[in-house]
Design goal:
single chain; 237 residues; mainly alpha; two-stranded antiparallel ribbon; 69% helix; 3% strand; globular
């Protein structure tokens, strides 16, 4: 039973006598000292208490999913700014894990599978254990699992393609500039995907992250050119 003593005088002990037709709620009603008709009246006046969160409530899911998605974008932004390739993949692992929770709340199960598999892949890349065989295996697993649980039609193919293409890039790209250019292409695909599943925080933050990544690429290119010019002048001198 579910007690609700704050609604009635202390000498009345409450107990559950009616379960509402909505399975998500319990209607708390009467006391053993009340007559049958008084109990029925009280059951109509008494509050309705949610037994669990109503995940069919789309606005609620959108708010929660977007908040989680926003927090995941912070990891992605950080990964696009730093210049250490290992730290880039560590931060992306964290971003994938948090973003998979957002996809679950928003009901995009293809996104969950690809993100969790990508998190494992990024952890292996960060550890320096991502071999050619693992790249092929991850591409196959990402494609098969993503297609199997895809519930968004063509929209659900976007995270699959984005993650598979980035997986190939993770193996072949070694320097920080190539890594960031592959990230920028991946960010563009995830931005489109975010808006299509109504994850506006994801779509917006991906655009902002893309801009930050592009600026970071330009600064890195400038730093590399300056370093080369300095080295050339030193060799000439």
């Amino acid at each position: 039973s579910l007690n609700c003593f704050d609604l009635l005088p202390h000498n009345i002990r409450l107990s559950v006598i009616t379960i509402a037709t909505n399975e998500d709620t319990l209607r708390v009603c009467c006391a053993e000292y009340l007559s049958r008709w008084e109990a029925l009246l009280l059951s109509r006046l008494c509050c309705t208490i949610p037994s669990r969160m109503d995940w069919n409530n789309l606005p609620l899911r959108l708010i929660i999913g977007n908040l989680i998605s926003f927090s995941s974008s912070l990891f992605l932004i950080a990964s696009c700014i730093i210049r250490d390739p290992k730290k880039v993949f560590v931060l992306q692992t964290l971003e994938n894990i948090v973003l998979s929770v957002s996809s679950f709340v928003l009901g995009s199960y293809a996104g969950i599978s690809t993100l969790l598999i990508a998190a494992v892949k990024n952890a292996l890349v960060a550890a320096g254990k991502f071999t050619f065989g693992l790249m092929i295996a991850f591409c196959v697993v990402l494609t098969v699992v993503g297609l199997w649980i895809n519930n968004r039609g063509l929209i659900g193919l976007i995270p699959i393609f984005a993650t598979v293409s980035l997986t190939v890039c993770n193996y072949y790209t070694k320097d920080i500039l190539a890594i960031k250019w592959s990230l920028l292409a991946n960010i563009a695909m995830w931005s489109v995907y975010g808006f299509l599943i109504y994850d506006f925080a994801l779509g917006t933050m991906q655009i902002i992250t893309g801009i930050i990544t592009f600026i970071s690429i330009r600064r890195t290119e400038k730093a590399i050119r300056e370093a080369k010019n300095t080295k050339n002048r030193s060799s000439v001198g």
